[in-house]
DNA sequence: CCAGAGACCGGGAGCGCTTCCAGTCCCTGG
DNA sequence: CCAGGGACTGGAAGCGCTCCCGGTCTCTGG
């Protein structure tokens, strides 16, 4: 009833009702300068009366910006979709966008299909900026993102190249702490189950593992790669046991894989943590359920999303913010408790 | 280099290069009628040469549509964010949108904060249609969605009201099958851990439970509610054991809660499935990890997303599609195996 | 008393596209 | 041979907003 026509009221109608020009109304609404107090008030009243909401599309066209940012994710990545990661990232991003009036668009990129769609989407002016996550080594998404020329923030580093803006978790540091924990427990034959070699996160965690073992002057070559899934972790554990039946600890690059490794260890009659201590990475809910519960490295997933979005907002505003490295934290549970006497072998 | 100016080429430039009017170019590009074969070809070449991509914003303004749909989710809902649900829904939706040139916007609605943001977003013309999920009983999001007047598809029914278009999982049927399974195992004192009473999904699953027990002429009032979390499930199981120490089966409305219930049962010295058989709901990965593994009801999450989007597309196109109820399936694992002799009590 | 600096105002030209419409042209059937 | 119906064409009017800019008005300081 408030709007004369059935459609949404337009700026013109507001201006007319307020008795000012459209320009003045526009200024008042975007509270820019050069509007008298009286007119500002009149416009505000008209806005309220009509229930006026600016037409974002028209704004976008006139301002030459879109009013939306996109979160692009490679969806071959079990890492994000088998886990609760995704929801948390989104929650963080949303929180950062909360008082921004920017919309969040989602772009899932199948590595093979849907390239056209991605390309169209990334082509300006379909978004004002882009957050990109979970890239693989030679991900076509990365190229498309780079070609788009849009302000871009990486969530987690890509394998190749050093982007100007990114937010990452301190994977290397976290993995180092995990391995140090095992060393401090007196373990000497320490293996690792690493992630896929074509992801930066896997490489960084493996580096951290190597860092710690090198300092302790231990061998750090007892490594098997897997794909971040439970099944993959179980299989990798099999291979490790075959290579080195006498291993007394294993640092696993994800909780999912650690859960699989745990199963394999138990199947092979190893007691955890007495015979083999295990630490995971991620701190997923799953870590509470394994038998025994999982010592792991906690990473701030929600913050990752939040900081990505904040960084992007800054970049879009023309600032030159610094990249961010978020801290991790050791969470000690049963699979590698603080002090446990090494079982006599 | 292809574009004369640094900016994206416009339709005018395409038309000029092709030697036709802008109208003709537009028609050719949207392959509408009334374009000669020659002109169509010329336009296509010009498009290719210039690397022209239509400006969606301008299209949106002229066409009076946005070119995007929104997925709105209430984020108080652990159900979606503690689980891998979310990623799968998104994957399904994306698949359905794949060859549509519609963008997917995401709207997370904190039940208390951010109402303005939601309202702005839902106000046309910020999206052409809306999918809404995970509503609670008196969810403000539902009111806002209804007031928006946008074509709406519900993913999962709301507690109140019967929306014209929805896609839901056959929760009632699934829960009935779960309970029937327990009955068929010879269990007679069957309890249930239900979800929050202010969600339709919880109510439906509880109804299904009651359906089955009524047919079997068993008491179906041994019910405790919880919040779909593991901790909640564990606590509810405590209460059930207190009320009825002699229960021999429990049907749990989610795998997460079932995992918690399992822990409680073991703590109380109950053997599963010998003393108490347990079935969950959802078929999350977690069900493989519990000790024993979890018999559960599988629901097609990805399909839910896919069908929601398909339905929405139909509605947006002015069709009147039918709502959908997706089937569930019993997955038998250790916590309630096909045949197990009831332990002598 | 007057020049000049602001504050404020509204007209109007876009932003890039769609779409209506009046006008051509050609080709058919009577 | 001619009327009439398509197929095709391009001009022009939007879609709803922003923002530049020339203009008015007021107030200050010299």
Automatic annotation (TrEMBL), chains A, B:
InterPro entries reported for this sequence: HTH_LacI, LacI/GalR-like_sensor, Lambda_DNA-bd_dom_sf, Peripla_BP_I
UniProtKB keywords: DNA-binding, Transcription, Transcription regulation
Keyword Transmembrane helix: no
Highest taxon above the source species: Bacteria
Residue stretches making up the HTH lacI-type domain: 9-63
GO molecular function ontology, one term from the record: transcription cis-regulatory region binding
Protein name, entry field: Transcriptional regulator
């Amino acid at each position: 009833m408030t709007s004369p026509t059935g459609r949404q009221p337009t700026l013109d109608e507001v201006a007319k009702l307020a008795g000012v020009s459209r320009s003045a109304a526009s200024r008042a609404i975007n509270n820019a300068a050069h509007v008298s107090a009286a007119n500002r008030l009149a416009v505000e009243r008209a806005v309220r009366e009509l229930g006026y909401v600016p037409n974002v599309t028209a704004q976008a066209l006139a301002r030459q910006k879109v009013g939306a940012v996109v979160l692009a994710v490679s969806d071959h990545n079990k890492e994000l979709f088998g886990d609760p990661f995704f929801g948390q990232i989104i929650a963080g991003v949303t929180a950062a966008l909360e008082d921004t009036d920017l919309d969040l668009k989602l772009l899932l990129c199948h590595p093979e299909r849907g390239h056209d769609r991605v390309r169209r989407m990334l082509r300006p002016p379909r978004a004002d900026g882009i957050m990109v996550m979970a890239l693989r080594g030679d991900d076509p998404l990365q190229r498309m993102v780079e070609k788009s020329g849009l302000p871009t923030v990486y969530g987690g580093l890509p394998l190749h190249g050093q982007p100007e803006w990114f937010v990452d978790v301190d994977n290397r540091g976290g993995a180092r702490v995990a391995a140090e924990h095992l060393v401090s427990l007196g373990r000497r034959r320490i293996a690792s189950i690493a992630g896929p070699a074509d992801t930066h996160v896997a490489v960084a965690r493996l580096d951290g593992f190597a860092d710690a073992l090198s300092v302790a002057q231990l061998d750090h070559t007892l490594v098997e790669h897997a794909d971040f899934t439970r099944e993959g972790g179980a299989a990798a554990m099999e291979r490790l046991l075959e290579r080195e039946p006498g291993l007394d600890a294993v640092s696993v690059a994800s909780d999912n894989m650690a859960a699989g490794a745990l199963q394999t260890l138990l199947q092979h009659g190893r007691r955890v943590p007495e015979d083999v201590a295990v630490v995971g990475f991620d701190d997923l809910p799953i870590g509470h359920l394994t038998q025994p519960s999982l010592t792991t490295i906690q990473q701030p997933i929600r913050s990752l999303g939040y900081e990505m979005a904040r960084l992007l907002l800054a970049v879009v505003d023309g600032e030159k913010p610094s990249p961010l490295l978020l801290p991790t934290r050791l969470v000690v549970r049963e699979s590698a408790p603080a002090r446990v006497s090494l079982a006599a072998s």
